[in-house]
Amino acid sequence: MNDVIEIKRDGNIAEIILNRKEAYNAFNLEMVTLLAKHLSNMAVDNAVRGIILTGNGHSFCAGGDLKWVVTSSEKPGHSFRTLASQFHLAVTEIRRMKKPVVAALNGIAAGGGFSLALACDFRIMEKSATFKQAYTANGLSIDGGGTFTLPRIVGSARALEIAAFDAPISAKQALEWGLATKVVENGASLEESVMLLRQLAAKSSLFSFGWSKRLINDSFNNSFESHIEWEREGLSDCSESADGQEGLKAFNEKRRPSFLF
């Protein structure tokens, strides 16, 4: 276990805990490099079937560590370029892996923490947790895929409003805008995230989830004709997988399928 990232296992569910409590779990180069590495390893680890990302203490993640940037011997542009390269590896791993990734939001998610949460497939938010875009208030532009994911969730007009005015977003507002999957009592985000993954396993095949995630994410970049060809490829691939065979057999036998998880 490394001090800045803590890994726990709950059966086939992996918990990644951002562990710089004193800095509100803001990520420096060491933390975000380790985060990208752990996500990459978990993406190909067959023993891991779902991932929960959370923070230690009362914060999810305050984004990039600006103190690290301003005290660096390098120019800010160089420091941000280096930090963003590793951060973008991490969010890309989340977006491209075939496994479900849940953000258990135990407190504020600001700046890169906001973008990190938006990159996840599901967001379980505690009542006292908040989102804050935070970049523009510091004279910066949004990174971590935030300008890609945010308008796709809330629409371009609201995304620009969030970027321009940088008002904090409460858990209640986040749920209404579709930024949160579910709002729970304080202290319950981790338990609820585990429950969500267990429910997903009971109702859906991980193999078909992976295809659905990929198809939905790629739908914004493909033409209609090329996209439905990918849908045909996915349908064929799923039908010949172990879960697909089980699903078809269970349908024929009029019973609930038992998928691998």
Structure notes:
By secondary structure, the chain is an alpha/beta fold. It has 2 domains: 5-201, 2-enoyl-CoA Hydratase, Chain A, domain 1 (Alpha-Beta Complex), CATH 3.90.226.10; 204-252. The chain contains 11 helices and 10 strands. It has helices at 29-43, 66-70, 76-96, 112-119, 146-154, 156-165, 171-177, 189-203, 206-218, 224-239, 242-252; strands at residues 5-10, 13-18, 50-55, 59-61, 101-105, 108-110, 122-126, 130-132, 169-170, 182-184. The strands form 2 sheets. A 6-stranded mixed beta sheet has the order 1-2-3-5-7-10, with helices on both faces. Strands 4-6-8-9 form a 4-stranded mixed beta sheet. Helix 4 packs across helix 5 (146-154), helix 5 crosses helix 6 and helix 9 runs antiparallel to helix 10 (224-239). The model has no long low-confidence stretch (mean pLDDT 94).
